[in-house]
Amino acid sequence: MRIALLLLLTALFAYPVVSAAQSATTPATTPAPAADSQGGGMGVKDSWITSKAKMKLVADKRTKARQIKVETQSGVVTLRGKVASPEERAAAEEITKGVDGVKSVRNTLEIVPDMKRKAADAKDDEIAKSIRDRMAADEQLKSTSIRVRADNGMVTLMGTVPTVKVKDRAAELARKTPGVRAVRNELQLKV
Which range marks the domain in which residue 156 is found? Predict the structure, then answer.
């Protein structure tokens, strides 16, 4: 655990040096990425927010950070995964809101007591596999690259799809899969 944290910290501190060196060698004709209020590209800022949030979750003893997945898009942080109690869920949200640059937090953490975690994880793996298998067999969905995540029967669909019809079809197929309590359709349309 300490080694992983040390590697993460090393990577975080090394990134600005590498980034600065790369930008110094970029030709003047290359357009710069859109800058945010802190002077970096939005993707860089989001990755920094994600890293900072993960580090704060690791450092805070109220949360089991390995159980929490953190994703950031345009300053909006989404928390996914399973936590043992409502207090841990609230603590994770509070910690994340305290990170510089966070505009808002979407807390989709599912509460699953530790004694039920192993069974819930196994069931979620089955649900996600079943949905992926069904999508691979479906004519409209087999060529898409939709990511499926299940947390205590709550399924999240992520990725990009070509049309609204395909997006709706994926959600419908997921909803009809045994064991699914609800579907969170986060699929985006390809631009």
Answer: 114-189
pLDDT at position 77 = 95
In order, the DSSP letters of the chain are: -HHHHHHHHHHHHHHHHHHHHHHHTS-TTSPPPPB-TTSSBHHHHHHHHHHHHHHHHHH-TTS-GGGEEEEEETTEEEEEEEESSHHHHHHHHHHHHTSTT--EEEE--EE--HHHHHHHHHHHHHHHHHHHHHHHHSTTTTT---EEEEETTEEEEESEES-HHHHHHHHHHHHTSTT--EEEE--EE--
Q: What is the CATH number of the domain that holds 84?
A: 3.30.1340.30
Domain boundary among 43, 77, 111: 111
Per-residue pLDDT tens over the stretch 17-54? 333 333 333 333 333 334 444 444 555 599 999 999 99
Same structural domain, 96 and 152: no
pTM to 2 decimals?
0.61
